[in-house]
From TrEMBL, chains A, B:
Coiled coil: 91-118
Superkingdom of origin: Bacteria
Annotated PANTHER family: HTH-TYPE TRANSCRIPTIONAL REGULATOR ZNTR, REDOX-CYCLING DRUG-SENSING TRANSCRIPTIONAL ACTIVATOR SOXR
Name of this protein: Cd(II)/Pb(II)-responsive transcriptional regulator
Annotated region described as Disordered, given as residue ranges: 127-156
Chain's gene name: cadR
Gene3D superfamilies to which the protein is assigned, alphabetical: 1.10.1660.10
Biased composition (Polar residues): 127-136
InterPro entries to which the protein is assigned, alphabetical: CadR-PbrR (IPR011791), DNA-bd_dom_put_sf (IPR009061), MerR-type_HTH_dom (IPR000551), MerR_fam (IPR047057)
Lineage: Bacteria, Pseudomonadati, Pseudomonadota, Betaproteobacteria, Rhodocyclales
Length: 156, 156
DNA sequence: CTTGACTCTGTAGTGACTACAGATTGTTAA
DNA sequence: TTAACAATCTGTAGTCACTACAGAGTCAAG
């Protein structure tokens, strides 16, 4: 199969597949005479693996590690558990952080119920004060609030 | 005051201040003879405002909108409330999404309690299956799991 | 007068894609 | 046969909010 079909089967944009190849995650060994990439069932499985990991918000570096375990079937998989536990920890930490953030935002919102002139807006005035320190996500690798789980919106 | 002091006072890296200037958020009107930027108390307040907004994970485009309200004190501030409500909505949506993600990760983790060889690892096998569809964060602007609230780690 | 701290401009890197431009290859209809 | 069109190719630039330099200039203290 060619790249377009692989994309359709796995729900992955074609350009993302080529990006994974540049990143060394998924290489097509063969090409047609006309230089088109050729894939088979093993590529479908490998790409599904990658996309599943990404849908679980793992970084590509984490996926790379998991792929190494897949490629070495005799190895002990204890480190897989370790990696997953760490990832769960990061997600849990980010949830705690966002909950604190939500509380701060709601208390800020309390300061201005009615629309009036901006000069007396409690929200704008409060924002001019330095922020109080909150959770700071020291060791983790968890994103800010903007952006989103793009992997799943691929088709639209 | 010069850029270093402004950075110290507001807890902002110097290069970030220059970045905000390039982005049109905070301009130093004056320079010294030696071409150094000069700031005063109004800049401290404006930068504090920006940093406070960022510590609440607002995008710079959102901050830009709020700054416009600050710069037009006679205007009605109803849209400030609207913006903040939308932002709270995005944060809440991201929390829901991450909670669903955490459940999926914990159920995945259940599949392999003991370290054994990777060929029979329940986690690796499960990941090779296509993901089930979950929350997808359609309209929002909320990030993935990696990265983090960098604004607060500025000093280290 | 030299050392060192500070500042300047400009450019490149981050992560995980996304979006082109411009060329080539393959498929189908007239 | 030819023309249109879809699919693919390579390569580069853009996204966001910074961060990290390089290389040059400015300034205060010893």
């Amino acid at each position: 199969m060619k790249i377009g079909e692989l994309g359709r089967v796995t729900g992955t944009p074609v350009e993302t597949i080529r990006y994974y190849e540049r990143e060394g995650l998924l290489a097509a060994q063969a090409r047609t005479e006309g230089n088109f990439r050729i894939y088979d069932a093993s590529h479908v499985e490998r790409l599904s693996f990658i996309r599943h990991c990404r849908s679980l918000d793992m970084a590509l570096d984490e996926v790379r590690i998991l792929l190494r375990f897949k490629d070495a079937p005799g190895e002990n998989c204890g480190d897989v558990n370790t990696l997953l536990d760490a990832h769960i920890g990061h997600v849990a930490a980010r949830i705690r952080e966002l909950r604190a953030l939500e509380r701060q935002l709601r208390s800020l919102r309390e300061r201005c119920h009615d629309a009036r002139d901006a000069a007396h807006c409690g929200i704008l005035n409060e924002l001019s004060q330095p922020p109080r320190q909150g959770a700071s996500n020291e060791g983790g690798h968890v994103h800010g609030v903007h952006g989103g789980a793009r992997a799943r919106n691929a088709g639209k």
